[in-house]
Amino acid sequence: MRNLVTRFLTGIIIGGLFWLAFASLPSFYFSLILLGILICIIVFEWKRLFKVTKPLFWLIMPFYPILPFALLIYMNQQPEYHDLLFYLFILVFSFDTGSYLVGSLIGKHKIAPHISPGKTWEGLFGGYLFAIIGFRLMLWEQGVSRKIPFILWYAIILSTLSLAGDLFESWLKRRARIKDSGSFLPGHGGFLDRFDGIMFVVFFFYFWRNYLIKIFDIS
Questions:
Q1: Which helix (H) or strand (E) holds 111?
Q2: Looking at the whole model, is its pTM more than 0.70?
């Protein structure tokens, strides 16, 4: 329980600082933060997953993690797409928070024990519930009215992509026989551990960006 409280509190602080930077800083400076995180992942964390001398180190890196961060920076720099990142970050954060809290408290049935022993079906449904609530609150705060089926489907699709990103990164860590990608974030591991879901969800947001700005009523 102590670890749960510690991780939750540090998550709130880290998430709050990240959100403050996104909401308050000019786009250029927030893009520099994203670039700095990417550099930390490549320089300090990526080599823990793959040896520099191995071809996979160089073959996978352009597509993961460089490409997802390039898409985040591109959307952040474009005024018409900038606010989409607000939805992306809050949805993934809501899903991750719900998954961890519910999974830690009542999780028993493992989703993929050989890849990520901590992931449970109970945590998954808790994450879905938090994502749905977070999505609904975002739409309400932005003054956007959408029907419940729309909210349910989008929250589930984006949460599933976030879960896929989490499992993929867990598989990479399992393959490298490490628990965390790094130690930059106390109680949370490395930057890759915190951005794994975002790095999958951003592809959906990027490819459907022109459609999403309409349904989210972003102008």
A1: strand 110-112
A2: yes
